[in-house]
Amino acid sequence: MDTNAMKNWDDRGTTAEAIRAGMIDKLVYSVGKDPEHATLQDWSTALGLVVRDHVVDHWFRASHRSHEEKKKRVYYLSMEFLIGRLFNDAIANLQIEPAVQEALSTYGLELRDLLDQESDAALGNGGLGRLAACFLDSMSRLEIPAFGYGIRYEHGLFRQRFHDGWQIEEAEDWLVSGHVWEFERLEARYTIKFGGHISFDGQGNTKWHAEETVFAMAYDTPITGWQGKHVNTLRLWSSRPTEILDLRRFNSGDYLNAAEKMIRAETISRVLYPDDTTPEGKELRLKQEYFFTSASLQDLIRRYLTEHDDIRHLPDFVSIQMNDTHPAIAVAELMRLLTDEHRLSFVDAFDIVQKTLSYTNHTLLPEALERWHVGLFRKVLPRHMQIIEWIDFHHLAEVQSRNLAVSLEDVRIIGHGSEVRMGNLAFIGSKKVNGVSALHTELMKQTVFAEFHRLYPDRIVNETNGITPRRWLYECNPPLRKLLMETIGTDWIANLEKIDAAAAFATDASFKEKFAAAKHANKIRLAGVIEKKLGLRVDPTALFDVQIKRIHEYKRQFLNILETIALYQAIRRSPANDWTPRVKIFGGKAAPGYHVAKQIIKLANDVAKIVNSDPVVGDRLKVAFLPNYNVSLAEVIIPAADLSEQISTAGMEASGTGNMKLALNGALTIGTLDGANVEIGERVGPENIYIFGLTSEDVAEIRVKGYDSRATIEGDPVLSDVLRAIAEGDFSPDDPSRYHDLTDILYNSDYFLVTADFQSYFQRQRDVDHGFRDTSRWTERAILNTANVGWFSSDRTIRGYAADIWNVPSV
Ligand code: CR1
């Protein structure tokens, strides 16, 4: 092969003229449409293909380089990648927007319209999945050779619709109009086995006689780093049948059953589990986890062996990060591959495993640390059960030999003889285990992994989460991007710490005016979306108060709604007072089986209906719950926010990342001392954040001592009035008892301490009212938020992983 000829394939050029010509070429010869009959979707695909070509040029160069230099690679294993749309991301990273705009103008097309044709790839639930997407961006930015490995769900997170205020879930169909960014890799295919039994031949050979097999087939999406300097790969696996149609059955007219095996195999990558806190769907979920983990490990070992001969040196050239416990089966699967297939001893294999794998914990919620019944586990993964028994036995022996006062039961993988604890498996099989904010890591050491921490005091490290500034400022906030570029230059895009230069302009009258104007423009854009989706008109000069995240009791949207009602009642009592107009904006999905969360959504919508139509209240208060919150909607809401609600029960939100995005875009936070709010507060300073409520220590103490919520409610006339109104059906006249379950929770088992924090939250909100009225000072404080949160770039986070965990260089 003439590799020199290969190196010069990419002379396409990124001038407007080249893009214009490229588009016509793609439209006609790839999409198969003539310009006269092309739809917006066709044009969008054509432009997408042109942009993709440029990405591919950079991509090949990067892979050749990594291969030739035999660089160490990072593999990020994650059940979720919430990448959203990629079109604008590629254009922004390649810096070709002006040329694209110019090319489009010759056809009378608007870039925005073409971008809107792309579907939002919702291959994740929330923060954990979006973090994985930001990490891919940052690994490319830092030129770390990396692969993201996950599942190519045919249907991502469900689409949320409201029917009479209730959440309705509909299947999502992101692939329906084609996805230009991915490449199908028919040749990258691995066999994945399930079930059956194991035989040993007495000569050290172990054979797994599987009951069921499927193929994992790869789809690759290039992930462009800033300025295209490096491009990594997101490789997603799709499940395919190993046996095709049963022709005998088909010919006998039994069409459905003839396809049964195919359908079963394809089910594995059919849907994303719509739950980010509880393991559901048991067997299928376990199969999904094993499916993508096994395919990824087989694939990375194959790649390793094309560059190196000795499997024993794997840890020198490979680092594997397990994103939460979902891929924790990697510990046992890597053991299996190293022993059964590559013939290493168990002891040698385990040494390699512990030097190669690392694990990120994302939550302390006990229900989210996955556990599997031994019976189910053995049925689906018989060989892995044996391997886990071996690891558990040897680990226990090692712990016992150290004679430490450690609870042995707590550090077992197989708990009470009946469950496989994936958190413990991941911990034992890892080189490093990290938390995602300073507080969360501290709490990990004190709670879920306390015993492990005593055994292995160097293993737990902290890597506070971050967000990519390309997506979460440069792309989503053009007015602010422009202002920053004019004022402090462009360094901040690749080095977000440099955004601190904006602090010097916080009191500069002209900068302040432009900063406020940028915010106002973004608010007008959001107001347009609210009107379009909800038919509700809101005043863009009002305070935009935003809570966007999954609906969960610990995140306490309920607390926000209670405060909304209290404010509503106060306005109605004294409409003539000088109120600070507010728009309460909500977005978020509830897990389909999470009854309380769905009631909270309905309550928010019921409250919205009453408040928004009350002439006494008018523009002083509006409530807008936007349906189907996703990455694309976040890109519109975040730049328009004035106030960011981060009000979880202290100690329960591991980090949060929406908090970082909102602060970066100039929203002030109202929040508890939880997750990364603590670190945000340290950087923006107490006068630029509204902290309230119990601390995590207070919460821990209350959990021990007990808490009487009824006494709190009865001692607080404002809260009593709010709960009375809900319980009497003021917001649900059609069904007055609709919310008795919700109010009962507050009276009888307020585990999330909503009532305990209500008063201080309500007070802090009045401070916000007061603060927002001083427009000039508010703008200064907003600027100081933007300027002081540069540390929360995911580039900084990834540098931390590279140095502390993966041992790879970053630029
Ligand atoms: C946490 O709840 C954190 C993200 C990313 C979530 C959130 O606070 O910002 O992870 N955890 O680290 C999660 O989804 C399954 O656990």
Automatic annotation (TrEMBL):
It is found in: Cytoplasm. One of its GO terms (molecular function) is pyridoxal phosphate binding. CDD domains: GT35_Glycogen_Phosphorylase (cd04300). GO terms for biological process: glycogen catabolic process. It is an enzyme of class 2 (transferase). InterPro entries: Glycg_phsphrylas, Glyco_trans_35, Pyridoxal_P_attach_site. Keywords: Allosteric enzyme, Carbohydrate metabolism, Cytoplasm, Glycosyltransferase, Pyridoxal phosphate, Transferase. Its cofactor is pyridoxal 5'-phosphate. It catalyses: [(1->4)-alpha-D-glucosyl](n) + phosphate = [(1->4)-alpha-D-glucosyl](n-1) + alpha-D-glucose 1-phosphate. The modification N6-(pyridoxal phosphate)lysine is found at K661. PANTHER family: GLYCOGEN PHOSPHORYLASE (PTHR11468), GLYCOGEN PHOSPHORYLASE, LIVER FORM (PTHR11468:SF3). This is Alpha-1,4 glucan phosphorylase.
